[in-house]
Structures are given as structure tokens and as C-alpha cells.
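OP here, attaching both records as promised.
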Amino acid sequence: MTMGVSARNLAQGIATAAAMFVALGTAAALWTNPLFMRMTPTGGFEIALLLLQSVLAGVYVGLPRNPCGKRTAGAGAIIGFLGIACPVCNKVLVLLIGGALLLEYFEPVRLYVALGGAALLALAVWLKLSRPECLKAA
């Protein structure tokens, strides 16, 4: 089975991983930055899981362009971000659920949400790698 990963695909994968790490880490305020302020302390797992998610997204993008696993990868990225982000900083979640409920019920399971996002990204990569038709550019 020939994968056919070009230098361009590899560069796009690396750029995607780097951009995702910087953008989502900044938006989640995993490090001090002038744009966002985190209202809850990090649990210590966020940066490692963001790195894992970024690498998996980069691998997915670096593989030949094909819609295999596209929805799975997108869902994994969104769910993974929710898992690493500050729960009360997310205005949409606060409006839908409320700050107190987020801290009470969502905060304790954020690690598992982030792991679920990484698992979905890994599944999307596996879907592309396990099916020969997915390794051909569309």
C-alpha cells in the first residue's frame, strides 16, 4: 500500500498542528496572554492533551486529502477544545448550562471530555490509514 504523502501534505500537517496548538492554547488561556484570561486554574493535563490533539489533527491533515473521517476529526477537535478550555470562560456553555452547573458537573469530567476528543481524532486518523481508498487524494 503506497501512501503518497507529499512534501506539501507534510508541510500542511505540521502547519495545522502548530497553528492548532498556538490558537487553541491561547484561546483556552493555557498560558498568559493579553487576549484571554482563564477564570479557573488548569488541571495540569490541558497542555499535554492539547499537544496530543494538535499532533493528531496535523497527522490527519497531512494525509492525502479525502473526506474519510472528516466529521469524526471535526467533532474530535471541538470536543477536545471543550475539554481543555476553561468551563466558565465559554460564554455559550455558561448561557446554556449556567456557571454553577458547569463548575459542579462539567469541571470534574473535563479530562475525560478532552480524552474523548483526542480519541475521536485518533479514530479519524485510523479511518484514513486503514482504508486504502482513503489514502488516495479526492
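Record two, same layout:
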Amino acid sequence: MASELRVNTLKDASGNNSVATSVVSNGTAKAWVNLNQDAPQAVRGSNNVSSVADEGTGATQTNLTSATADANYALAGTVGDDGGNTGCWHTTGYNVNSYNTSNTTSSFHQQTYYATNTVADTGFVYCTLHGDLA
């Protein structure tokens, strides 16, 4: 039997530090992923991510378990290089080549490349999604 808990405010065990549930719901990431982009791509950890797809060198499609309300969410990402290279960048919704970057309610795209605009797979790719779930 499913149950439902309806509250307006959450407080800590001492009854202090209250926060409205809308702040908790609206302010938390709706998805995040920590992946190794080196072949074969592998997810180290995630929330609301069903799978990733290798779209070519430096390009990954991340598929969501639960869809967003629309494609107007915010993505933030970063990357760490495991090969000793410098100037490694991470983008979402844009790339220096012609990979598919059309974010949808069920997936988004990421690309990693060096400051020289050379795409490259990296060992550490991190991304969060903020927006409303459907």
C-alpha cells in the first residue's frame, strides 16, 4: 500500500533550521552523472540516469530515467583529464564538431575537448541537471 506524506516545512530533529519543501524540491538536482568517457564508457555513479551512449570521441548522450517537464533545464558540468593534458573543457548543448546536441526531455548531450578544440575522451566527466521533472 502506497502512502503519501504532505508537509509544508521541514525541520531538523531539534525543531530548528526549517526549510519549505518547495525549496527542497525546486533547488535540488533532478539528475547527475559521474562517468568515465574512455572506451568503453562507464557510469561510476548517477541519479535519474538510465544509461549513456557513446556518440564518438569526446561525445556522450546521457539518457534520463524520469523525463523533465520540458527541455529548458539548466546543465552544469566539469571534466578532469586522466592523461596529464591541460586545458580540458566540458560543454553541454554545444560542441566543436557536428555531434547531435539537441537536448530533449529524456536525454542531454555532453562533449569534452582540449583548449585547441580537439575533441578527446576523458576519464572523469561530471554533469548535473536542474529543472522540473514531468
